[in-house]
Amino acid sequence: MMKTPLISAALLALALAGSALAADKTDLHFGNAWVRATPPNAKVAGAFLSIENTGKSGDRLISASTDAAGSVEIHEMKMHGDMMQMRQLTEGLAIPAKQTVTLKPGGLHLMLIAPKQAIAEGRNLKITLLFEKAGSRTVEFTAHKQAPAAESTPHPQH
């Protein structure tokens, strides 16, 4: 007799937890997703986008993958004295609540290691982004020789 309210409470807690996780997924919006077109035999390619987190809690981009390359790494470029240095962000990339993080040339970016073929201008490729809370999100990137004109705001993409 006492078990029924406990079971009901447990089921309600699980349902609420599930809806909170689902809400995290819809809080992320992607815009300006592009990858730099490459010549044949290029060893790497940069991919860029903006990630807007409209949610109440932060998230973290922890990895990325694509069928178009051997692997994908999250990188940061920044000046150290007179030298520009690039490093892999092995702990991932924080996406704070109510903020937009922009991955762009010369700064944060995704590095496609060992592209399987040249990435021709106009080609579309999909990159799957794995977030700590929101889980897996696949975003379509379009190849350009240089950064395209920025969109005004990120938009949902699945």
Describe the protein.
With 158 residues, the protein is of the alpha+beta class. Helices cover 15% and strands 49% of the residues. The protein is built from 1 helix and 10 strands; from the N terminus they run H-E-E-E-E-E-E-E-E-E-E. Strands 1, 2, 3, 4, 5, 6, 7, 8, 9 and 10 form a 10-stranded mixed sheet that branches. About 9% of the residues have low confidence.
List keywords for this structure.
about 160 residues; alpha+beta; 1 helix
Radius of gyration: 19 Å
Instruction: Name the overall outline.
Output: globular
The main pleated sheet reads as: 10 strands, mixed
Count of DSSP helices? 1
Which whole number gives the mean pLDDT? Answer: 86
What share of residues are in beta strands? Answer: over 45%
Distance between the termini: 45 Å
Uncertain ranges: 8-12, 14-23
Multimerization status: single chain
- Portion of residues within helices: 10-25%
Can you count the beta strands?
Answer: 10
Helix-strand makeup class = alpha+beta
Order of helices and strands: HEEEEEEEEEE
